[in-house]
């Protein structure tokens, strides 16, 4: 345990406290989940089987020629029984944002600032900033995408490898991406590159790292709903402490079957190898699976499952294998009233120790559109962290808020 304990004090999993009206302040999220899909290069995981963002803001605001300007303001208040695993407190939240898109030019720009205030436990207060921009260039048989983003977030105690966190730890993420989707006959070849830089302040600076990632995807599309996929990827983890450095290689293959507007099923399976600079390497099976289904025009169901080495979104030097399952149910009771249920389970088995952790989260929210530009949302969410060698933590929270967008 000495190896793991020494590292647990300097490495953290990123959690952004900005999901105001549609999620608890402890949900682990990153750039792909936070940025809307209207920003070229974001809005989905850097993966073939992408996790769709249900609540991405759309360009529904003001139009100036081909340019759409969508301001948005969300405010909420409620009670959190254990923010970040700390003492309970009322919670007040506000999040203004602005989305600029020009579909004709293939351009998107997004900015958001968020504030969470806990009057009875100010140690949990957070201020976060999110910026993202992208450009998509469409050429004959080729699509080039360039994008960049910046996140000033906060890590909390409801995530893997965060046993030492009792108050939010601020951090910064800088990310640039480039991809080129090339079509030739029945085949599509997509090379992609991503470079991320993670920065922690003060004593947590030992968790700083750079993370370049390269990926190559080959798709065979013979026509109809079936697509065959083959993907190879390499990730380099370069920490400020060289002994924590590692390389991760993976290869997956599988099928995706899609019926437009009705359902999509995708399954990729393969193997990944984690090769640290020091210590033994690990090779293990990995999996990505997804099913989306619209049984009626009023219902949407999404189920995802994965098994991977480390979490590609984690800021952590303590390696583990992660298995996760997520379910989203979305039902429109009427034209202006919707209900959403989210549930997630994740298990981490640490590679060099006997430690294993289990995280579960659930949310039920209801949204009532008072007018095209104003809606009310009530939400309840639950978080729990269990481990064989760590104390358990549980969180319940309820919020009621307003969202304005012209």
Question: What do these coordinates show?
Answer:
The chain is mainly beta and 406 residues long. The protein contains 2 helices and 19 strands. Residues 1-29 and 46-59 have low confidence and may be disordered.
Question: Could you give a short description of this structure?
Answer:
It contains two helices and 19 strands. The chain is mainly beta and 406 residues long.
Q: What's the layout of helices and strands?
A:
Elements: H1 2-8, H2 31-34, E1 62-64, E2 67-80, E3 89-102, E4 107-117, E5 126-139, E6 142-155, E7 169-184, E8 187-199, E9 209-220, E10 226-239, E11 246-259, E12 263-276, E13 282-296, E14 299-309, E15 320-334, E16 337-350, E17 356-371, E18 374-387, E19 393-404
Antiparallel strand pairs: 1-2, 2-3, 2-19, 3-4, 4-5, 5-6, 6-7, 7-8, 8-9, 9-10, 10-11, 11-12, 12-13, 13-14, 14-15, 15-16, 16-17, 17-18, 18-19
Supply the key terms:
mainly beta; Porin; 2 helices; 19 strands; globular; disordered N terminus
The tally of strands reads: 19
CATH topology: Porin
Instruction: Kindly estimate the percentage of residues that lie in beta strands according to DSSP.
Output: over 45%
CATH architecture: Beta Barrel
Class per helix and strand makeup = mainly beta
Helix tally equals 2
Order of helices and strands: HHEEEEEEEEEEEEEEEEEEE
Which runs of at least 5 residues are low in confidence (pLDDT < 50)? 1-29, 46-59
Q: Roughly how much helix do the residues carry, as a percent range?
A: under 10%
**What's the CATH C level?**
Mainly Beta
Largest sheet: 18 strands, antiparallel, barrel
């Amino acid at each position: 345990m000495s190896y793991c304990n020494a590292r647990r004090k300097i490495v953290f999993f990123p959690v952004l406290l900005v999901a105001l009206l549609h999620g608890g302040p402890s949900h682990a999220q990153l750039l792909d989940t936070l940025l809307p899909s209207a920003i070229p290069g974001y809005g989905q995981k850097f993966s073939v089987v992408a996790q769709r963002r249900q609540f991405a803001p759309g360009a529904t605001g003001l139009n100036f020629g081909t340019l759409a300007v969508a301001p948005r303001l969300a405010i909420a208040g409620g009670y959190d029984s254990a923010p970040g695993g700390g003492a309970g407190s009322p919670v007040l939240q506000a999040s203004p944002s602005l989305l600029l898109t020009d579909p004709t030019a293939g351009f998107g720009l997004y900015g958001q600032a968020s504030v969470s205030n806990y009057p009875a436990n100010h140690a949990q207060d957070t201020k976060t900033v999110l910026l993202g921009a992208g450009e998509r260039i469409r050429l004959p048989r080729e699509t080039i995408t360039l994008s960049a983003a910046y996140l000033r977030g906060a890590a909390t105690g409801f995530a893997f490898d965060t046993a030492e966190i009792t108050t939010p730890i601020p951090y910064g993420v800088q990310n640039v991406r480039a991809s080129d989707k090339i079509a030739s006959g029945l085949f599509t070849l997509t090379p992609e590159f991503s470079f991320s830089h993670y920065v922690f302040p003060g004593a947590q600076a030992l968790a700083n790292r750079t993370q370049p990632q390269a990926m190559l995807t080959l798709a065979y599309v013979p026509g109809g709903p079936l697509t065959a996929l083959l993907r190879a990827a390499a990730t380099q983890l370069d920490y400020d402490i060289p002994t924590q450095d590692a390389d991760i290689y993976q290869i997956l293959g599988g099928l995706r079957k899609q019926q437009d507007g009705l359902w999509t099923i995708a399954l990729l399976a393969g193997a990944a190898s984690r090769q640290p600079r020091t210590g033994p390497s690990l090779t293990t099976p990995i999996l990505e699976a997804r099913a989306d289904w619209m049984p009626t025009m009023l219902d949407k169901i999404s189920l995802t499952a994965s098994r991977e080495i480390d979490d590609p979104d984690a800021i952590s030097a303590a390696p583990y294998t992660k298995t996760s399952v997520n379910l989203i149910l979305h039902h429109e009771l009427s034209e202006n009233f919707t209900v959403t249920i989210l549930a997630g389970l994740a298990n981490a088995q640490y590679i060099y120790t006997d430690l294993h952790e289990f995280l579960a989260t659930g949310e039920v929210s209801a949204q009532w559109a008072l007018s095209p530009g104003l809606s009310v949302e009530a939400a309840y969410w639950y978080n729990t962290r269990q481990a064989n060698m760590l104390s358990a933590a549980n969180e319940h929270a309820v919020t009621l808020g307003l969202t304005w967008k012209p």
